[in-house]
Amino acid sequence: AVNVCWDEAWALYALGLAAYNLGDYGPAQEFTVQSLGLHRQLGNRHGEAACLNTLGLIICGLYEGQADKYDEACILFEQNLAIRRAIGDRWGEATALHNLGYIHFKLGQYDHARNNFDASLEISKLVGSLTMLAATGMWRGVLAMEQRDYAAARKALGESLRIAHENGATTRVTDVMFRMGDLLWRQGQAERAVELLAFVLHHPATDDRVREGAELMLAEARSHLAPHLFETAQTRGSQFDHNRLVSELLRGMLAK
C-alpha cells in the first residue's frame, strides 16, 4: 500500500506540473494539493518541498499582479526553502531562493530580491547548476535595470546569455535577448532595440509570454519612431543569424 501511495503521490505531482506548464492552473493546483497531502502522509520531505514550490508557481500564474496572492506564494516558497535546507538539498535551495527573489521583485521589495538572487547564484555556482545560473542571472539583470543600474544589468544579462547559449538553452537565450531589447530601449538605442525585439518575435524557440512582451514593446516603438526607421530596423532584426547575433551581443554586453 505504501508503494502504491508513493507512486500515486508522484503521479499526481507530475500531472500538476504538466498542467502548470500548459497554463491550466486550476487542475494544476488540484493535482498538486492532492500530491502534497500524500507526500506528507508518507513523510517524504523532498516530495513535500517539490509540491510547495509548484503551488507557489501556480499561485503566481493564477493571480499575476495581485500583491496579496504574491504574499501567499512567498509563504509557500519560504516553506519550500526551509525544507530544502533541512534535508541538505542545495540544488533545491538555489531554486527556492530564485523563486523567492522573483516574488520579492514582483512585490517591489528590491533589496530582498537582490539578496535572494545573489544567494541563489552563489549556490548555483557551487553545485554547477547552469540552468539556474542563467535564469537567476537574467532576473538579477532585470532587477538592476529596474533600479537604473544599467552597467550591472548589462553585465548580468550578458553572463546569463553566455551560459544559456553554451548550455543550448535556446528559449532562455531568446528570453534574455528580450530583456536586452528592453535595456537598449531604456538607454535610448531605439533602432537597435527594435532589431533585437524583432528577432525575438520571429524566433521559433521564443516562449509565448516573451513573444507577447516583444509584440507590446514593438507596438510602443512603432509609435515613437519614424515609420521608415522602424520598418527598416524590424526587417533587419527578423533576418539576423542566431549565432552571429549572440556573439555580437556578448561582445557588447561583457566588454563594458
Topology summary:
Elements (H helix, E strand, L loop, with lengths): L1 H20 L3 H18 L2 H18 L4 H21 L2 H17 L3 H18 L2 H17 L3 H17 L3 H17 L3 H13 L5 H17 L2 H12 L3 H13 L2
Give the biggest beta sheet: none
Number of helical segments?
A: 13
Helix content: over 70%
The H-and-E topology, N to C, reads as HHHHHHHHHHHHH
State the end-to-end CA separation: 61 Å
Q: Give the low-pLDDT segments.
A: none
How many beta-strand segments? Answer: 0
Beta percentage is under 5%
Query: Rounded to an integer, what's the Rg over CA atoms?
Result: 20 Å
Quick check: average pLDDT?
Answer: 94
Write up what this structure looks like.
It contains 13 helices and no strands. The protein is mostly helical and 256 residues long. The termini are far apart. It has helices spanning 2-21, 25-42, 45-62, 67-87, 90-106, 110-127, 130-146, 150-166, 170-186, 190-202, 208-224, 227-238, 242-254. α5 (90-106) packs parallel to α7 (130-146).
Can you describe this structure in just a few lines?
With about 260 residues, this protein is mainly α. It has 13 helices and no strands. The model has no long low-confidence stretch (mean pLDDT about 95).
Keywords:
single chain; 256 residues; mainly alpha; 13 helices; 0% strand
